[in-house]
Design a protein that fits this description.
3-stranded antiparallel β-sheet; elongated
Length: 220
């Protein structure tokens, strides 16, 4: 199976792991103005200038010169009800059935509201698509960690000692945890901080949901 990366126009990664994901990806999709950022860094990753496989968005932040030069890979989507990250995600899910992993990169930094919004969209993707049935994993990777979404009881292979935070918009959800320093059974998810800054006491953390719902898992 193949991997894809979505390059957003936030902070481009400097650390080895997210850059490795870009270098080894079978499919690279840039969100609108992220094309310019990707081109600026591509030689440092690939050893030469490399174009992405597609550029998608409403093209409101891409210069006319770049729009003309890369017109053969541009997918213009003027929809204002979704952001460019979601357009790229939907494009991959709809057109590439052999993609087993999608890594979203450059979705954090610069503007905190973009960071929070982009991370929360992982829950929308997990809720909208049956990603497990599709055999596709989705995460957001940046220099300081990884974020993913779960919709039900799950085992997170994170490694002992790793910092783990859990967020959920569902204040009726209860999560029983195994493998965390501090138990989450009594947590009521009525504010963002409620299950943050935990630490994995085992290599695998098991989260048992009281009912099918949605949660965001952030790891350093």
């Amino acid at each position: 199976m193949k991997t894809a990366v979505i390059i957003c126009n936030g902070d481009f990664p400097r650390k080895e792991y997210p850059r490795y994901l870009i270098k080894t990806a079978d499919l690279i999709v840039c969100c609108d103005g992220a094309l310019q950022t990707f081109l600026r860094h591509s030689a440092g990753i690939f050893g030469e200038l490399r174009s992405p496989d597609a550029v998608i968005g409403d093209m409101d932040s891409l210069s006319p010169a770049l729009r003309e030069k890369y017109s053969h890979i541009i997918i213009h989507d003027p929809d204002q009800e979704t952001n460019d990250q979601t357009k790229a995600f939907n494009y991959i899910i709809s057109n590439f059935k052999d993609i087993s992993s999608i890594h979203i990169i450059g979705a954090t930094g610069k503007r905190v509201e973009h960071t929070v919004g982009n991370m929360s969209l992982l829950m929308e993707y997990a809720r909208t698509y049956d990603l497990e049935a599709l055999g596709t994993s989705v995460d957001m990777v940046y220099d300081y960690g990884t974020v993913c979404a779960v919709t039900d009881t799950a085992e997170i292979h994170c490694g002992k000692g790793r910092k783990v935070s859990i967020f959920s918009p569902d204040n009726t959800l209860r999560i029983h945890s195994e493998g965390l320093e501090w138990q989450t059974d009594g947590v009521i998810f009525d504010n963002w901080w409620k299950a943050t800054l935990n630490i994995a006491s085992e290599d695998v953390v098991k989260l048992t949901f009281s009912h099918r719902s949605i949660a965001l898992i952030a790891m350093d």
